[in-house]
């Protein structure tokens, strides 16, 4: 790429988006590099999105649940070994909520988006981390036909304790459902709300405590919506592709690192430049959530992470290797022409970006 | 760094201008992260040489023996890949994939991909060449398609995108370069295979010759690749 061409791109970008141009003039947030602690076994076909299950009795025995878009779900231990395979079809994204009140019981709920039939599939997780199909297992992703595939999925537990599942479609449609269970444990979904984003989304994450739903528009940026389905789905765009932290498309996974009930970071994976951007979790008075930095995952105990996709993070300590929690990310270019997931100690992110969280 | 590669930093930067997408690659990470490559490292990364390189650039399709020969330049990258007989290539794997799109009650053969995984200089590299037409089955080989930017064009037109990817772990280097041909021709020469139960052909061979321009850069490619996969993109 010549300097002229880069300059040309910047000029075009600036003309297309004054916001991007303004952001470019501001001081760039820091960008640093960290390394992974370990990696999973290669995934046979096409991994995309992880979700972390916390073993509260023995955190070091927690699990990472990962989608394989050609196969279903794979469950990994923290050494990266596959401990369970669920051949349930083309599952694109996955999310988890633990200790959810459903039908009078505490349940750990896992939801995944299934592309071949545009359904939401639900699992429960046993005390040892084993996944099992919920009953029923599959639900339509929308009440009407939507032309293109179901894509991203996120779980949310509202202030009233009712769990919700939010899905998006490649068309930009977003559908929010309430999850309920009867006394026998049979699950049901009730439509709460639908809205759209301008172009193809994927990543979804809900901030249960602050009552937000974030949607990543792959070529556009990151949107914030009020999670309350009674409120209008008026999105606030907190960052745009082309900014210092989302230099190029795609915005992929979204997750939240919680340092307190209302503090922490929204973390977004930026596929085009192999990086992860951190935003303030709490909007300021103007409703803005500034990007405070970004990082890449370089060569260390593993190969680097390239063309990354989904991600999940927990702030809970998961044993001595993850004292400030675990970040799990998809790696699209693993050694041997394979793909897998990499596990990063959040403590390294804290140090590299000087986030000031006590060790 | 003037190159489009850098430490964990090479970026795909597609910017659509009108109906024609120029897929460009631009370094956009602060220099403090860039692990400067020496000239020797730069050559190892950017000059991709494999096989019997004395053969020069092909001027036509090289025949039915599975092969992949690609000669030319794309941005900072120079290619002289001469895998004239894949059966003799221990560090490379070549496969093709067909994609079909339902249109009414018909499946159109709208896309095929030629994918090469190759190890050179100890670096694992992947190349994917993707061609689109409204229905390639309406223009069986031999046929010549003019390359242009529109998706799934009707008639004797084709879209051609090439993606080059590699990761050099020792240097923290990731390359991901996608480009859309601005002009040139695709000459299809071979299409074999039998329809399976889903009425799509996930077997056989695809062969052809491409002469493509990417702005000031140009590539020629001759290929015959075994089809390993077919899918319906609905």
Secondary structure layout:
The complex is a heterodimer of chains A (359) and B (234).
Chain A (H helix, E strand, L loop, with lengths): L2 H14 L1 H8 L5 E5 L2 E2 L7 E7 L9 E6 L3 E6 L4 E5 L4 E12 L2 E10 L4 E7 L5 E10 L9 E8 L5 E7 L3 E9 L5 E10 L4 E7 L4 E6 L3 E6 L9 E5 L10 E8 L5 E7 L4 E6 L10 E8 L12 E4 L11 E9 L3 E8 H7 L7
Helix pairs in contact in A: 1-2
Chain B lengths: L9 E8 L2 E8 L11 H8 E5 L15 E8 L2 E7 L8 E12 L2 E15 L2 E10 L10 E5 L9 E12 L4 E8 L2 E9 L13 E10 L2 E16 L2
Uncertain ranges of chain B:
1-34
| Largest beta-sheet details of chain B | 8 strands, mixed, barrel
- CATH class category of chain A: Mainly Beta
Mean pLDDT of chain A: 92
- CATH level-four homologous superfamily name of chain A: TolB, C-terminal domain
Q: Which structural category fits the helices and strands of chain B?
A: mainly beta
Commentary on this structure:
The complex is a heterodimer of chains A (359) and B (234). With 359 residues, chain A is mainly β. Chain A is built from three helices and 25 strands. Chain A has a single domain, classed as TolB, C-terminal domain (Neuraminidase, 6 Propeller), CATH 2.120.10. Chain A is 8% helix and 50% strand. A five-stranded mixed β-sheet of chain A has the order 1-22-21-20-19, with helices on one face. A four-stranded antiparallel β-sheet of chain A has the order 2-25-24-23. In chain A, helix 1 crosses helix 2. The N terminus of chain A is likely disordered. With 234 residues, chain B is mainly beta. Chain B has one domain. The termini of chain B are far apart. The chains are: A mainly beta (359), B mainly beta (234).
């Amino acid at each position: 790429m010549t300097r002229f061409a880069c300059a040309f791109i910047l000029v075009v970008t600036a003309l297309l988006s004054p916001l991007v141009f303004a952001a470019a003039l501001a001081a760039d947030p820091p960008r640093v590099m960290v390394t992974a602690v370990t990696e999973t076994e290669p995934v046979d076909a096409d991994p995309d999105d992880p979700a972390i299950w916390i073993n509260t009795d023995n955190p070091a025995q927690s699990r990472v649940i990962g989608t394989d878009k050609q196969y279903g779900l794979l469950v990994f231990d923290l050494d990266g070994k596959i401990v369970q395979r669920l051949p349930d079809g083309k599952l694109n994204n996955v999310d988890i909520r633990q200790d959810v009140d459903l039908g009078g019981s505490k349940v750990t709920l896992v939801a995944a988006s299934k592309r071949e039939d545009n359904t939401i599939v639900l699992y429960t997780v046993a005390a040892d981390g084993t996944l099992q199909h919920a009953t029923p297992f599959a639900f339509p992703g929308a009440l009407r036909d939507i032309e293109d595939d179901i894509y991203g999925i996120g779980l949310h537990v509202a202030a009233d304790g009712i769990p919700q599942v939010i899905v998006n479609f490649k068309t930009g449609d977003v559908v929010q459902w309430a999850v309920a269970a009867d006394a026998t444990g049979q699950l049901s979904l009730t439509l709460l709300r639908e809205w759209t984003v301008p172009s193809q989304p994927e990543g979804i994450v809900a901030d249960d405590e602050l009552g937000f739903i974030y949607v990543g528009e792959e070529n556009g940026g990151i949107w914030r919506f009020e999670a309350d389905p009674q409120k209008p789905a008026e999105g606030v765009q907190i960052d745009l592709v082309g900014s210092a932290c989302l230099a190029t498309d795609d915005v992929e996974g979204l997750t939240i690192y919680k340092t307190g009930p209302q503090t922490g970071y929204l973390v977004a994976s930026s596929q085009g430049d192999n990086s992860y951007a951190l935003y303030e979790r709490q909007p300021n008075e103007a409703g803005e959530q500034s990007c405070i930095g970004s990082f890449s995952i370089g060569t260390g105990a593993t190969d680097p992470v390239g063309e990354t996709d989904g991600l999940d993070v927990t702030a809970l300590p998961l044993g001595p290797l993850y004292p400030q929690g675990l970040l799990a990310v998809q790696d699209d270019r693993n050694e041997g022409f394979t793909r897998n997931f990499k596990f990063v100690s959040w403590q390294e992110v804290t140090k590299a970006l000087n986030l000031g969280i006590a060790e | 760094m003037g190159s489009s590669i850098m430490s964990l930093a090479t970026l795909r930067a597609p910017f659509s201008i009108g109906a024609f997408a120029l897929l460009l690659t631009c370094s956009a990470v602060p220099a403090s992260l860039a692990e400067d490559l020496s000239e020797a490292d730069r050559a190892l990364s950017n000059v991709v040489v494999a096989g019997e390189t004395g053969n020069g650039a092909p001027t036509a399709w090289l025949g039915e023996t599975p092969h992949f020969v690609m000669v030319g330049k794309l941005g900072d990258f120079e290619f002289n890949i001469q895998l004239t007989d894949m059966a003799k290539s221990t560090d490379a794997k070549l496969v093709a994939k067909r994609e079909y799109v339902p249109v009414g009650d018909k499946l159109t053969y709208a896309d095929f991909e030629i994918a090469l995984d190759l190890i050179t200089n100890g670096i694992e590299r992947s190349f994917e060449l993707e061609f689109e037409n409204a229905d390639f089955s309406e223009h069986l080989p031999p046929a010549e398609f003019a390359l242009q930017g529109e998706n799934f064009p009707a008639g004797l037109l084709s879209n051609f995108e090439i993606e080059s990817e590699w990761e050099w772990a020792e240097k923290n280097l990731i390359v991901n370069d996608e480009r859309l041909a601005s002009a040139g021709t695709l000459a299809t020469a071979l299409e074999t295979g039998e329809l399976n139960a889903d009425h799509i052909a996930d077997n056989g061979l695809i062969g052809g010759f491409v002469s493509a321009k990417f702005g000031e850069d140009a590539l020629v490619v001759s290929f015959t690749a075994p089809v390993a996969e077919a899918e319906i993109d609905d």
